[in-house]
Amino acid sequence: MAHPRLTWGMLGLLTLLSVVLATRLRVDPNMLELLPPEDPVTAAVQAINKEEGGTNLLTIAMKGQDPEVLDQWMSGLAAELEKDPGVDYVLYEVEPELAWKVGILQLTPEELDLLAERLQGAVALGPAAANPFVASRLLDLGPLTARLQSAPTARGIFPQVDGIARMMVRPKGSAFDADFARPFIARVNDTIAAQDPAAHNIELVWLGGAYRHAVEDVEAVRNDLGWTGTASFVLVLIIIVVAFRDFRALVLIFVPLVLANIWTTGAAVLTVKNLNTFTSFYPAILFGLGVDFGIHLYLRYREQRAGGGEVEDCIARAWDLTGPPSFTAALTTVGGFCALWAAGFGGFQQLGTLLAIGVSFCFVSVLVTLPLLIRWREKRPYRLPRATQRAVWTERPPTYRLAPLGLTLAVVVTLGALTLVPRVQFEFDMSALRPKGLAYADLTEDQRKLATASYAPVIISYEDDASLTADHALLAKKIADKEFPMVKGLLSIRSVLPADQEARVERLRRVATLARDPNIVYLPLEVQKNLSRIAATEPQVISPADLPRSLQHMLGALDGRHRILLMPDGNMWDLRETLKMRESVEGTLSGRNLAGEYLALATLYTLVKDDTPRIAAIAMFLVFVLALLDLRHLGRALAAILALISGMIWAGAAMALFGVQLSVVNFVGIPILMGIGVDVVIHLLHRLEEEGPGRVREALATTGWASILSTLTTVASFAALILATHRGVQSLGMMIVLGLSLVTLSGFVLVPLGWMTTWKFTGRLPKSPNP
Question: What is the pLDDT of residues 59-114, one digit of tens each?
Fold first, then answer.
């Protein structure tokens, strides 16, 4: 207050620097970056992403009434997409001749031996083969030879099913690079629209894969960041206006809050570097948390001013009385958030960092700027009502005779609520937390099949071809026998080029030689037609280098690599199913070099399971230690923690009754509730001790009112999260709104009853009415 210009100058410089830093803040939807880097599967995926941009593809599925029209339209779309500078390749069809050569290699040696044997016998008959009686015995040559003609004639790599054709697009950039993925997806949609599918009776059934989901997640984060922050600001503003009935009070309360949020955003660039689904809503939280300090300090100042006194003296007195509990409240809240640092999941760690920094900035900002703002407010004198509400005894001082009974009933309610807590469920399906319509449960049966087909594969890398060939045969048999849970298929170079290719080519050459025999003219016309194509060629061994680059990459054979790609099945957004797949794959392929986004995601299940009790215990311990340091009395510190625990139990019971599930997003609400909930308890404990016996109503009318107001603003700020499109963020809002309301109610019930019961049993009852 003695150096206002210097203070504002320093604050302005800090704010300007934060604004400059904030312009560099980005949104990163890559959840793999948040998993422990020491996990071998995560490390393997990151290595592939760094080496070749990952294995993610974009799946485009279209549905049409005429298969030929659909095929031609898809071919045209593939040609247009290949012109896009951001496309590496489009996999829809291969050159027909190569497709035929690869197709005939899929006939097994046994099938080829049978064909050659029957064909040799038929050719040896010569003209006799034309005899109707003999020809009837050659009818099996029709189906046998048909595969030589028709097996590879389909142009599309992926056969049409129920009028749906698919293609795979390999982009050049990463799905998790928003600057690449957003314009890329926009260009793909524009290219599809330019082909006018409706004019050909064709419709888009599915456009999926990591690129689409990453773009949707970024858009949801950006939308929610602005929307929830604005809604939180407006709701808190309304509460402040109604409570203070003074528009200039908005400046006093909100200027420190806005400054703190700007500083936090600047600090985010230096600490967490990027925002994600788990950190995008921090402004909405800080608006609710940070306003508490301003409310308590400003209301205590008004209380002092109402009793008379100079402005600066009243500020100093208010800061002396309310500053210490506010500081402790800030520390306990920060301690609750710092407990998130013990999490194995980076998303929780980053949120803990942001909120710990943010709450600290909010406290410092209020502490420094509010006195200056109050002096500005006092330039125009105004009259404050003498709003002191004192307890009035008409006959005799209170005896608190019902306090022990009330405390006992509160304990009984808490014990009853404890029986409901185990009924709180956990939402393991990550897709159920995304915006409505994008969850796995929201998809149609066809869309689920196409979504499954667009999953990123599990990649198994080998040093040599022999090891790959052995595992390919083993895995193919397990999949065929349905002994490989959560895996529906596999791809490798052995899916197209068999290990015994030379033996098959030798047999095909024998068939080709027989097909060129002059006596072939006596065979049925259908058989002659089927044999005409192989008769006109000489089967050759095909090497991986003879395949198109796109197909080499799809089969894991590009640039001399030896890979098997396992195709996941089921709902890979459900952490329980990803865990089943990981256990299945690692159990079957122990010691192999494994990489896969869904294998890595399975780690999140274990992390959340292990983090929940550890973080809750650490948060509770930190809150207790900080409360003990502030209250300097073990009994009061324990009482504060017991009141907090009771409130948490009430909140858990309410979640069970209202069906609010825990998830990887709202899980952070547990330390948030602890950090915020203990604030009310600490402020009430300080004021009740300050007022002494007989002044419970006085404490509730002053500090209690400030606590209610601060709780309302916090609840309002979290209520803004319910408006988010991301359902995980919505659930966090519902959890905090419900939980904080009950934790606060618990504090208002248990703390006064506890004090009154203590006063009664220790004989500290008031001897005379209040003055």
Answer: 899 999 888 899 899 999 999 999 999 999 998 888 888 888 888 888 899 989 98
Residues 733 and 758 in one domain: yes
Q: Cβ neighbours of residue 750 under 8 Å, at least 6 residues apart?
A: 407, 410, 642, 643, 646
Residue at 471 is within a domain? no
Listed in sequence order, the residues at least 6 apart from 325 whose beta carbon sits closer than 8 Å to its beta carbon are: 296, 630, 682, 683, 686
| 366, part of any domain | yes
Using the Cα atoms of residue 307, residue 313, residue 314 and residue 320 in order, give the sign of their dihedral: negative
69 plus 197 within the same structural domain:
yes
pLDDT of residue 386: 44
Sheet holding 202-208, edge to edge: 87-91, 164-171, 58-64, 202-208
Amino acid type, 470: A
User: How do beta strands 563-568 and 202-208 pair?
Assistant: unpaired
Tell whether 369 is covered by a domain: yes
Let me know whether 743 and 668 are in one domain.
yes
Are residues 658 and 723 in contact, defined by beta-carbon separation less than 8 angstroms?
Answer: no
Tell me, yes or no, whether 313 lies in a domain: yes
The secondary structure element, H or E, covering residue 697 is: helix 696-699
Query: What gap in Å lies between CA 434 and CA 219, rounded to an integer?
Result: 11
Q: Is 536 exposed, middle or buried (0-12, 13-18, 19+ CB in 10 A)?
A: exposed
Using the 8-state DSSP alphabet, how is residue 537 labeled?
S
Structurally, the chain folds into a number of domains equal to 3
- Cβ atoms within 10 Å, residue 660: 23
Same domain, 176 and 273: no
Q: How far apart are CA 531 and CA 533, in angstroms?
A: 6
291 contacts 710 by C-beta, under 8 angstroms = yes
